[in-house]
Amino acid sequence: MSNDLTCFYCTAFLGVGVVASGSLHQVISTVKDALDNSDLTQLLIFDDSTGKQIDVDFRGKTDDVLKRLREQFGDLPGTEVNHQPTRRVGRPKLGVVSGEVTLLPRQWEWLKSQPGGASVTLRKLVDEARHAGGKQSKIRESQEATYHFMTAMAGNFHQYEEALREFYAGDLDRFYHFIDDWAPDIRNHIKRLAANAFPEGNL
User: Fold this and answer.
1) How far apart are CA 36 and CA 114, in angstroms?
2) What's the pTM value of the predicted model, to 2 decimals?
């Protein structure tokens, strides 16, 4: 189990201003050393990947805080190692694994007529579907992170509802227009979280 807090990125706000941004280890060390206990009670730390707030117990020394966080988070994204042995089925040298595919006769005929044959065509179709699915996943994750952060930090701001409506409508220009007069650090962080929230055609 990994508990490497350097793999977990976040941003800390004191009021409407950013006081630290980077790995969770860096942010905690920075704010703990720089701020007194009264200021820490007003501090909000957000996960950069989800836009959700991270609850941190700042009691004790910096090492105590970090130790509790390691116990709290346990396995962190991007640190898991796959220990499963590689299957040697099909054509191992090419990394190809054999399997059964059931199609209608007309579908087999179409596959066989494609350049490279059925296998090559199927691999291309799978790769294209994975690529398209990956883009949609990034859009959805960016939208959710932006929504969570906006709700927490800008839910009472002027034109919040209008901005959120244009955000989900995919109108980047109008979305930026409605958040333009918000606190600069909050506005800029929202733009960073929303960087992948819009289809390429709307950028």
Assistant:
1) 68
2) 0.68
